[in-house]
Amino acid sequence: MLGLRAGSQRILALAFPHLPTDRVARRSWGLSWRSTRRPDAPPIVCSARLNNAMRLTALDEAAEAIGLRKNQGVAEARAMCPKLDVVEEDLAADRRLLDGIADWCDRYTPLVALDGRDGLFLDISGCAHLFGGEKALLADILARLFHMGLDARGAISSAPGLSWAASRFGRGGIIADEDMETVLAPLPVASLRLDQQTIAALQKLGLKQIGDLVMAPRAPLARRFGTQLLLRLDQALGRDEEPVSPRRPVASLSAERRLIEPVQAEEDILYLTGQIAQSLKTSLEERGAGGRAFELMLFRVDGRVFRIAAGASQPLRDPKRIAALFSERLQAVHDDLDAGYGFEILRLNVMRHEAFDTPQEDFDGARQKDASLAGFVDRVSARLGADCLQNFQLCESHVPERAVAAAPAIHGFASGKKPVASGFPWSRSERPLRLFRRPEPVDVSLAEVPEGPPESFRWRRVMHRVSRSQGPERLAMEWWIDGADAQPRDYFRLEDDTGHRFWLYREGLYGQMPPPRWFMHGVFA
After folding, report:
1. Torsion sign, CA atoms 396, 399, 400, 401
2. What does the alpha-carbon distance between residue 206 and residue 462 come to, in Å, rounded to a whole number?
3. Alpha carbon 82 to chain centroid distance?
4. Whole-angstrom distance, CA of residue 428 vs CA of residue 269
């Protein structure tokens, strides 16, 4: 959560009042339909079933111009405009479009937050000068969105609440700190993001504008309407903090390249990725760190953004190895990466970094072997996914099936933990080479009582006669997991008359209830 205080940050609020109908128009007439003359087509509206009636939920500018309104019945609207184009509401498609716009806005700042169904917050503190100042940045983003077929309105101020109110109920633009109250005063009370019941009660009392609330005594307002009203008022005036949560994790380090000519070929993308990684190397060295998780963002010229993530088993600084990670990832996502008319911005993010150790090289090549293994793990994991290579790590449990856990090699290798050679902390001779995921029941016809091994047993429809045995090895179950009534296990290492070796256990004891049961838990080589 980012605490936003007036004067310390600058927040750009974007509102899309016709987002659902713009989505339909872009699909029907192309992305740049607003840049040309509107086609000779009927007004577009969206509808949904509300209170057992089909009502309008979204309208375009043409529908608003002929007097249609939200929540109006579809039958009444068709009576006013027989040629009305009524489209069923699709909230999921609207959300996907808003997410796509938020991804596109990452070119201005990585701190982008969603605001309901039709708005965004952008924290542009400290980055407006990169685009020629706040006025130039706002003009650029609104112009680009217009050419993408979207009706967008924006406002920049030091308070998210004021930016939200000015973009939706005011004229938008740039609001200086000294003009905050002046801009806010003539706006309706609905611009404070209050519930409809509170808004109606305020209007009934004649408090229709925010200026009326500013001039009114605060104590009576708090007694009648609660503290939420005053909180929203103070947030809009910048007197109180308002948290804004970025929709994506913020990168610890980031570098980008803006291109004059878009690129399409994978070779060009990888070359530029290496160049960007080179510019990140100095920052990583200053922190004494190396990157563990990277993200390559590709901004296509039509507004679509591709995010390609890659991880490393050890902290990396070397630009060639970082570029090699994305070489594998690009080959893995080749069919899903549509370059279209090319990518105009490439950004490399370091999403997670760790301390970078640089021990002295030894003469036996051990360090080189570790680096080769890490490189192999990185390349294969990048191509086939993090779960394609796994090793086993010891767990704090003496129950065999819980003593180890599988983990992606790309994670376990970096932790410094060595893989368990036999799968268990005991010697290879004491534990089987293969342990079954679930013990399989075994039929024992005859066994030494009370604690002896079986003389023969049937497993998987095959009878085995025991020629040699060793055991028992008793293991008590973990009462905090299995319960206090869990029966102990007596394990035996058995060899049948054909030379096959097995690992069986008896659950429970003879002479007690319930009677003991036998299970096959693993086989030796």
Report:
1. negative
2. 90
3. 45
4. 49
My answer on whether omega of the bond before 450 falls inside 30° of 0, hence cis, is: yes
| Pairwise CA distance, residues 81 & 67, whole Å | 10
Per-position pLDDT tens, the chain of length 525: 344 444 478 999 999 999 999 999 999 999 889 988 888 899 999 999 988 899 999 999 999 999 999 999 999 999 999 999 999 999 999 999 999 999 999 999 999 999 999 999 999 998 899 999 999 999 999 999 999 999 999 999 999 999 999 999 999 999 999 999 999 999 999 999 999 999 999 999 999 999 999 989 999 999 999 899 999 999 999 899 888 889 998 898 999 999 999 999 989 999 999 999 999 999 999 999 988 889 999 999 988 999 998 888 788 888 998 888 888 888 877 767 888 889 999 999 999 888 887 555 554 554 455 556 777 777 777 667 777 777 777 788 888 888 877 777 777 655 555 555 444 444 445 788 888 888 999 998 788 878 888 999 999 999 999 999 998 999 988 888 888 888 899 999 999 999 999 999 999 888 788 888 999 999 997
Question: Of 517, 521, 65, 26, whose CA–CA distance to 304 is shortest?
Answer: 26
Q: Could you tell me if 382 and 332 are in contact, meaning their C-beta atoms sit under 8 angstroms apart?
A: yes
Q: What is the DSSP string of 47-86?
A: EEEETTEEEEEEE-HHHHHTT--TT-BHHHHHHH-TT-EE
Position 7, amino acid: G
Instruction: Sort strands 289-300 and 305-316 into parallel, antiparallel or unpaired.
Output: antiparallel
Query: Is pTM, for the whole model, over 0.85?
Result: no
> From CA 456, how far away is CA 447, in angstroms rounded?
8
CB-CB contact of 518 with 505 (8 Å): yes
Pairwise CA distance, residues 6 & 238, whole Å: 5
Q: CA 505, CA 124: separation in Å to the nearest integer?
A: 65
d(CA 85, CA 87): 6
Maximum Cα–Cα distance across the chain: 98
- Other CB atoms within a 10 A radius of the CB of residue 59 amount to 24
Q: H helices of 111-159, where?
A: 134-147
Q: What is the CA radius of gyration of the chain?
A: 33
Question: What ranges in 195-339 are assigned the alpha helix state H?
Answer: 196-204, 210-215, 218-225, 227-236, 266-287, 319-332
Tokens 């990048």 found at: 382
CA angle 383, 384, 390 (to 5 degrees): 120
Residue that the structure tokens 């079954």 belong to: 436
Coil/strand/helix, residue 368: helix
